[in-house]
């Protein structure tokens, strides 16, 4: 399986929601589409899922236009629309029939999918009684009902409480084993847990297509973080004069130190601190979190 999004542009009246966006996805990947609110994530996902048409550009699955390949793709909307008075089973039957799955097939696949998403035993409960996590798992069941090879999920965990979030993250981890996934989120840590590759979008434009590892390496090279106590503030002046120190940034008792070569200089710096009898509260390297990096990218 290969998904190609080629030069997709989508405007709403004069507003450009997605601007010349391209990316590719290979079979077996789990990719996070990351960006702040209003970046254009839902719009891209709707174009991929053939819910809306782009002004220009195209989406191809295995070389064919996505509109001819809808059986291969599952879609979880950002705000799934359920009827509270329907049971879980009725919901899936209703949605399955709407998307043209034969009744005989649904009789077999609905119980299977309810087991898969952990809703066995709840098939006859009304959706109105479900927690956020259960509703979202039902949404995922609906997206997987026709056994697509590729599933697109729009902010699958963003709106959930910690328990619901955990339920859904675990479920996606399971689905990942046999389904190619594209999921969007504005919360980087959601994607961090599931995806190795990130595509970052800002104001409708792709600004990054990279892996977690690459991103972390690129942004925190040669940086040492030291936390000291009040009595050792004068040591900061000592650090600034060290030949291998390039830059020193002080925030309260926390010091960020850029050095020439992290491998050679980290022990030198530590030794210098000990020589000056500095009371070290914390000493670590490469401490830029993905969240820090994400913020510098999109803000
Ligand atoms: P995201 O999912 O990343 O939050 P969206 O794709 O929903 O972003 O929206 C991208 C931009 O397009 C936003 O500025 C939003 O206000 C605008 N937009 C989205 N849908 C519509 C619509 N139906 N009509 C007009 N503007 C829209
Ligand atoms: Mg959205």
How would you characterize this protein structure?
- GO terms for molecular function: ATP binding; ATP hydrolysis activity.
- This is ABC transporter ATP-binding protein.
- The protein is an alpha/beta fold and 299 residues long.
- It has two domains: 2-217, P-loop containing nucleotide triphosphate hydrolases (Rossmann fold, 3-Layer(aba) Sandwich); 221-287, YebC, transcriptional regulation domain (Alpha-Beta Plaits).
- Helices cover 35% and strands 30% of the residues.
- The protein has helices spanning 41-48, 88-98, 103-116, 132-144, 162-175, 188-194, 212-219, 235-240, 262-275, 290-298, and strands at 2-12, 15-26, 30-34, 56-61, 64-65, 73-76, 150-154, 180-185, 197-202, 205-211, 223-228, 245-251, 254-259, 280-285.
- The strands form three sheets. It has a six-stranded mixed sheet with strand order 6-7-8-3-9-10, sandwiched between helices. Strands 2-1-4-5 form a four-stranded antiparallel sheet, covered by helices on one side. A four-stranded antiparallel sheet has the order 12-13-11-14.
- Helix 2 (88-98) crosses helix 3 and helix 4 (132-144) runs parallel beside helix 5.
- The chain is elongated and about 80 Å long.
- The relative contact order is 0.13.
- The mean pLDDT is 92.
- The structure holds adenosine-5'-diphosphate and magnesium ion.
- Magnesium ion binds at residues 41-42, 78, 154-155.
């Amino acid at each position: 399986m290969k998904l190609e999004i080629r030069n997709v542009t989508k405007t709403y009246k004069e507003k450009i929601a997605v601007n010349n966006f391209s990316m590719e996805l290979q079979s077996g990947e789990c990719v996070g589409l990351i960006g702040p609110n209003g970046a254009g994530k839902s719009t891209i996902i709707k174009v991929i899922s053939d819910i809306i048409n782009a002004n220009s550009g195209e989406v191809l699955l295995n070389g064919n236009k996505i509109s001819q390949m809808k059986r291969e793709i599952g879609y979880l909307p950002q705000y799934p629309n359920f009827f509270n008075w329907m049971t879980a089973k009725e919901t899936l039957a209703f949605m399955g029939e709407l998307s043209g799955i034969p009744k005989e097939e649904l009789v077999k696949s609905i119980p299977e999918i309810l087991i898969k998403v952990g809703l066995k035993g709840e098939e006859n409960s009304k959706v109105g009684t479900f927690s956020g996590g259960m509703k979202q798992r039902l949404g995922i069941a609906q997206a997987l009902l026709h056994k697509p090879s590729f599933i697109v999920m729009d902010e699958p965990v963003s709106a959930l409480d910690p328990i619901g979030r955990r339920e859904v993250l675990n479920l996606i981890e399971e689905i990942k084993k046999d389904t190619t996934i594209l999921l969007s989120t504005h919360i980087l840590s959601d994607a961090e847990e599931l995806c190795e590759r990130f595509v970052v979008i800002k104001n409708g434009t792709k600004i990054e297509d990279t892996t977690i590892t690459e991103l972390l390496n690129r942004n925190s090279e040669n940086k040492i973080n030291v936390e000291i106590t009040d009595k050792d503030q004068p040591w900061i002046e000592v650090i600034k004069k060290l030949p291998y120190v390039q830059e020193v940034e002080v925030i309260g008792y926390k010091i960020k130190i850029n050095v020439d070569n992290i491998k050679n200089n980290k022990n030198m710096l530590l030794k210098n601190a000990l020589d000056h009898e500095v009371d070290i509260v914390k000493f670590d390297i490469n401490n830029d979190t993905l969240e820090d990096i994400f913020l510098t990218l999109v803000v």
